[in-house]
Amino acid sequence: MQWFNKTFDELTGVEQFKIYQLRALVFNGEQESSYPDPDENDLVAHHLFCCDGPQVVAYARYFEVGKQVTFGRVVIRKNYRGTGLSKPLMDQLLSGIQHDFPGREIVIHAQYYIRGYYARYGFHPTGDPFIEAERKHITMTHPGL
Prior knowledge:
Order of helices and strands: EHEEEHEHEE
Largest sheet: 4 strands, antiparallel
Number of helices: 3
Helix content: 25-40%
Mean pLDDT: 93
Oligomer: single chain
Strand content: 35-45%
Low-confidence stretches: none
Number of strands: 7
């Protein structure tokens, strides 16, 4: 497996297609979300993804929002879940944020049911749960890296 971290302009057309395909399979297919995807943030985001041969098997994007950084669209292909891929995904994601946005606070909208996963990486819940993209979420923060 090989990891890539590219800006939107650096992505090939095939890479964009495979990323959007994975996101659609999980968010629109499995989770039945009608939330708009792709969106304008794709144009300014860093796209982190892992390929196993020609297939994109894990993905996340991160970008700055004001003085903070956020990430989202964190996804692992269904048949790769439970294989330990989530740890290198978060490690690569946090490393990319540290490299591209050193010292910036990270603020995310985490799906509520996986808040414990992000807590293991130093994220703390702030505020009350809310509905976003038809799912229960909670804001979580992490000090700058």
